[in-house]
Amino acid sequence: MVVLKTSRELGVMKEACRISAGALQTVGKAVEPGVTTAELDALAEKYIRSQGGEPNFKNYHGYPATACISINNEVIHGIPSTKRVLKAGDIVSVDLGAKFNGYNGDNAATFACGDVSSEAKRLMQVTKDALYEGIKAATAGSRIGDISYAVQRTVEAAGFSVVRQYVGHGIGTQLHEAPEVPNFGTAGRGIRLLPGMTLAIEPMVNAGGYDVKVLPDGWTVLTKDGSLSAHFEHTVVITPDGPKIMTVI
Ligand code: MF3
Ligand code: CO
Predict the structure, then answer these.
(1) How many helices (H) and strands (E) does the chain have?
(2) Where are the domains of the chain?
(3) Which terminus of the chain, N or C, has less C-beta within 10 A?
(4) Which CATH superfamily is domain 7-245 in?
(5) Protein residues whose CB sits closer than 6 Å to any atom of ligand 1
(6) CA–CA gap between residue 125 and residue 122 (Å, rounded)
(7) What does the pLDDT look like over 3-19, one tens digit per residue?
(8) What is the pTM of this model?
(9) What would the pLDDT profile of 94-123 be if each residue is shown by its tens digit?
């Protein structure tokens, strides 16, 4: 069931999203050679709690940390570790969210660690562009497939591929709610978008093929062909005046 949020609910959720965005920005600024992914995770948790929020990924289906931190060929759900040290040239995907007064925020971005290859820069830019194209398509009266198609078109025009096995989602009192928001699909298909719908739109883009595999840890998702991957995500609300990004400070 797709839940439409009232303006009161959106006000609370905006706070969860603001905290999520602040935590992501804080982690992004700390990405540099020599830092461990566990240190980044601790920064995220500290920030979220300092703002009166709670890390909403922690214990979600047993997930052990505040953030998912996925490096280079890792697509999503990388588990922070004291053994994982960032080095110059890495691209670092950070995905995290906060819960505040019962409502969730969720956002992600891929950061460059030191100087990265021009291919990596282009992959990050195209993934971010695809997110914004998806958001632009999220107008009241359009359909989920319009978002999916806008993302896919942007990615494939650049010669990259969208991951198919993981999708964006509705979000509210639950981190993952209906509907699913795939990053590939057909314009004009799927449920109609209505004011008050809150969606996490999150393209995951591989430089090579779209196939992925999961490590034996049960979480870390990698590209099957070893190619680089990037991930950008915002929580967005559909309004009569167009889509509004909620995960901003
Ligand atoms: N951040 C993911 C998403 O964007 C969910 C993470 S699942 C968790 O939907 F278990 F790692 F929390
Ligand atoms: Co999400």
Answers:
(1) 4, 17
(2) 7-245
(3) N
(4) Creatinase/methionine aminopeptidase superfamily (3.90.230.10)
(5) 57, 60-61, 63, 68, 77, 95, 106, 169, 200, 202, 233
(6) 5
(7) 999 999 999 999 999 99
(8) 0.98
(9) 999 999 999 999 999 999 999 999 999 999
